[in-house]
Amino acid sequence: MPPQGYPGHPQNWGPYPPQPQGGGPQPPFPRPPRPLLTRGQRILKCVYNPFYAAQRAFRPSRPDAVEDLTVRKIQMWRTGLGIAAWLVLVMSYKPVDTAEGVETVAGDKFNQSWISTLVLVCAFPFVIALFAFAAQGALRGLYLRRSLKAFGAVAALVASMATFPLAVAPDPGTVGFRAAIGTPGMVVLITLCAWSLGFALYGIALCLMHVFRTADIHEVLPPILATLLVWVMAALDVVNDENADVPVLARIVFLLGAPVSVTVLSCWELYRLRKYHHLTVRQALGR
């Protein structure tokens, strides 16, 4: 049999990999990588896709950041189990047999997530400042420069939530503003509110998962801030007497379940960063 292939080229040359002899299952042909979007294309996609815009705003993007896929999977499982536990608690001890009850429960969950985000917004500047000023030498300025993206994420979330009072607040100032912009302005404002709704809801979830992209500052900050946030929220639940109609034992389990599980997960994440990536709090501070 004459050699196969194009004339003037070696055997098995061509755009496809050589096939093994004897048939059998063939390896899948690798897909070509997706072309990178230009800056204009990314901006345009952010305009018509609020979920893509939320990913760009709230996910860490430092090129040299360490990303542990095992920790990310555990975080997703923790989030799912937390939601499932909350649903079991609500279905067992709160009435959700009517549409009004479902709306109340959904509103409570959104308010809890929003309060968690606000607590994180108030807490993380102090933690970042303490972390940066505890670092030595040039690390201090480096961490302060990297923190601009985290503060930008905070500003983006607050700005997206600020559109709703302009559209629905009954105070004289916003009513006069809506009267001044007229019908065309109201169409633009309602469209902006719809875009902001998707951006804010997805952004809150990403903020809580990625802790306001503080991994862009250093990889050890997200587990530290997540632990701080969850214990502060537990303390607020105790002060506000949340779930007062739930039995004491179930309330204790529900109250301590989230802080303890998040603390264990955060300690394990710090352990993995130290063991597999040689990243520690002491090394991050240059000590």
UniProtKB/TrEMBL annotation:
**Ranges of Pro residues composition bias in the record:** 15-34
**Domain of life of the source:** Bacteria
Asked whether the UniProt record includes GTP-binding among its keywords, one would answer no
- What stretches pass through the bilayer? 76-93, 113-135, 147-167, 187-208, 220-236, 248-268
Q: Which residues form a coiled coil?
A: none
- Please give the residue ranges the record annotates as the region Disordered: 1-34
Question: Which keywords does this Swiss-Prot/TrEMBL entry list?
Answer: Membrane, Transmembrane, Transmembrane helix
Which protein are we looking at?
Integral membrane protein
Organism phylogeny? Bacteria, Bacillati, Actinomycetota, Actinomycetes, Kitasatosporales
